[in-house]
Design goal:
By secondary structure, the chain is an alpha+beta fold. It has 6 helices and 16 strands. The protein has a 4-stranded antiparallel sheet. A 4-stranded antiparallel sheet has the order 10-11-12-16. A 3-stranded antiparallel sheet has the order 6-7-8. A hairpin with a 5-residue loop joins strand 7 and strand 8. The radius of gyration is 19 Å and the shape is globular.
Amino acid sequence: MKSRLILQTDLMDCFDESGNKIPCSDSGQVAEHKKVGIGVKHRFKVCNDIVEDNLTGLSWCRNANLSGFPSTWQEALEYVEDMNSSTLFGYGNWRLPSRGELFSLISHQYINPALPKGHPFIDVFSGYYWTKTTCNRLADQAWYIHLGGGRIYRGMKHGSYMVWPVSGPEQHYGSESERFVMEEISVRDRLTGLLWLKYANLTDQPVSWKEAFSAVEQLNSRKIGEYSNWRLPNIRELESLTDMDSHSPALYNNHPFQKARDGYWSSTTSVYEPSYAWVLYTQDGAIGVGFKSLPEFYICAVRSGSD
């Protein structure tokens, strides 16, 4: 089961609860644990009107506003069908991107648009773009992603959002029985290689963002399972657990959350407003933000399976 998920964010800075930049050393934040990945120069290859993504294997229209106007979800699907009928740019297999595919382009370091610095795309609208993914709980709604800041939410299918077609191999992540392996104190995700603490809720009550980091520090001081390298997951790692075929929670049946709560803190600050951090909302799988100083969300812990 080979992973093509992007698990690292490109966030390079660390922030306190008030949104001020702080040193990353010993912060527990996503930038402290950042791994060197493929650079934009080597990730994207421009082939006339097409941009090939060497990281995911997908091919995107270089023009991110090819239709020139917002569309309903059905109109967006029909627009892509017309592209295929005319084999636009020599491709006959265009489609609306899935939620995960469009999310793969999102940057957490840059805004307006929330795309990696130096990206080759043109005419990017810093607003809402449709995905083909329907909300499982509410069939009259589909997922969209805000290209201004990276928020993922659902909208009524009769609403009007932008269209950015994609081509290439669709991602299939295997069944839940193949993906998750229960271990003594953790759940191993065979797709991502991550180890999640089996009993994910580290506190009985919701906590602030700062308190979330403190709880993980206390976990490491106790060396649960003889490990002291548990950490708060980044937002891509949290999103990788979402199952768009489920709801309440929108997580795989063997997910590591024994009693899933409504929302979980990530270690990723929102650069759109650094006094907020990214949060996974589990009912439908939305990716939004929470005000860091408010005790509104819960905590889970993760570590690399190779450490």
